[in-house]
């Protein structure tokens, strides 16, 4: 068996290397698939070699950023961490994270693992290992032709959470769906959230998921929304309401990046009375949603008992790669690449664009490959009207479904230039644009667009 394990690791490493160097593609999925084929128990065996804690990150939006930030925070405190940085979050990608981190001898020397898992894939991953912590970021409607309604995703997560009853859940308390799920499973849970009104969304036309209580079916009453269904809520009929928040953001400032204070409870050793710890954090990247990502990572690190002495330094040095607010500069044009794959995520992308008060160009790339979901009707649930108030110079639509995207913008009375070839669209805006460019892409356009930007940046 040891021989098969070593062969599996060697084959996976070679496959990943060949995919990157020869085919210029991420070889992660193939690496995991090959390793499992050769040695089906490889994930179980390697996961047992983690010395301390295994964290998994689930949720519709923010998984990759939160997972990579959690990994960076642990590494900043001196821990060696296994992580699927690329966002390959189905079974093969999870296997690859462990296999590629292992030595050629089959040994894995790591203190922790930070593993992002697609919600539907948890039922395939959890039989191999039981995590110590699950970070649950949020639950939004996403790719109906692939995942179905949110209730299906919630039922899958409920089953896997109950299969690991000792796993602690770090949950976004501002999301009624996620909070109810954590309460309903019986797992121990820890909450994070934002307990003050940050934005005025009275003119928002966002689609609100989870407007009805999952406990009794009655309408939820919201004091206010942060975005989508995230906010301060209570059921109008039963006792379900937003839980007490243990890691609470306040004094939020969205200008020139993000700045906020995290309040958390502390027990004074002398008399076991509760006190309060306050830490201020700031970062250069934009978007209210990133406060939730930071809170989730911070809460996970602290809840597991690790130090956070270097957390602010980590935020200053953290580079959100893989197309999550990733920045490039090509021929004097500042370019931000960001993933936008469902209504809630796209609306927050628009909010981030609006935070930048400078004149800007916007390229929107929409594909309908299998991983994207072939049903792109979700575009009609995005509040594109807000782009008209974002000081936009030109909008360019690209990708396989560029004509559909152009039609969607037409119904907001916005003109969009059409260029199906992403590289040509980017080069045209570099040559003729205003020097400030946002490229918003859905899932399968992300890697290829990032490759184009990296190549153009390297050729400058």
Account of the 3D structure:
The chain is α/β, with parallel strands linked by helices and 460 residues long. It has 15 helices and 17 strands. The chain has helices at residues 2-22, 28-38, 42-47, 63-76, 91-101, 122-125, 144-147, 150-163, 176-185, 288-303, 311-317, 343-355, 402-410, 422-432, 443-458, and strands at 50-58, 81-83, 110-116, 133-136, 168-172, 189-194, 220-227, 230-235, 247-253, 258-267, 274-283, 326-330, 333-339, 360-365, 392-398, 417-418, 436-441. The strands form 3 sheets. A 9-stranded mixed sheet has the order 2-3-1-4-5-6-9-10-11, with helices on both faces. A 6-stranded mixed sheet has the order 12-13-17-14-15-16, with helices on both faces. Strands 7-8 form a two-stranded antiparallel ribbon. Strand 2, helix 5 and strand 3 (110-116) form a beta-alpha-beta unit.
